[in-house]
Design a protein that fits this description.
TPR-like_helical_dom_sf, mainly alpha, 2 domains, Serine Threonine Protein Phosphatase 5, Tetratricopeptide repeat
Length: 281
Amino acid sequence: MNQLYFADIFKTNIYYDDIYNHFAYVFDQNGNWTEAKKLQVKVMEKRQQLLGPTHPQTLTSMANLASTYWNQGKWTEAEKLQVEVMKKRQQLLGPAHPHTLTSMNNLASTYGDQGKWTKAEKLQVEVMEKRQQQLGPAHPDTLTSMGNLALTYQNQGKWTRAEKLQVEVMERTQQVLGPAHPDTLTSMGNLAGTYQSQGRLTEAKVLLVQVASKRRDVLGFDHPYTQLSLKALNDFQRSEIICPKISHSEERNVTISDYMPAFIEAFRKTTYVDANKHVTP
């Protein structure tokens, strides 16, 4: 009798737990992070009590809460949960399980947002290599990992490494998804940024023109991404008037942020991420 009683209580708690979780998702999707966080904390604590600290659903609830912290810019809180989720998934599922790799990617993203590029790079290299082994070099998830690592190289000024990866991502994305796919255009924009930062203005301009033109044709002139691309191209063309006045030795030290802020706005906002950056399986 007691066992049946406690079984009913367990089922009831799980039922309400699911309701809380669904409402938290709705709040999250609408950008109501405060309300989402309240419900996600309740869900996480209930799952820890009922299922234990290492149950897959408990870890998912922790990852969801970490994602909300990330959306609020609470990097320290997000990082703490993500480290715990990653370690437990590594122990329970193994270092190469898709959920483990997602956890590593999420944590790397949070490291990057804090400027912890060395830590981010280390995780992203591991994720990329494991996905290449498991999924192959042309799988979308593999290309996502390569794109993420390339941007981390870019943020550290490692232009040669960034370029090598970005060229490969662009070429494979063009083959797999087509020349006008949003991911293809994003890869072209990211590569243009690397060319720009190296002072290779002609190569950057060719890519920028292609991206702006294809976005206009596919999405329409008034689409936000088209407008961002056109603004980036316009700012780039104006920068060409300034850049020739810079000596060759000085030009090597010029970066995107020095004279092309719209470029970052246009392409960093649509960069390679795992789903919505923080995947919580």
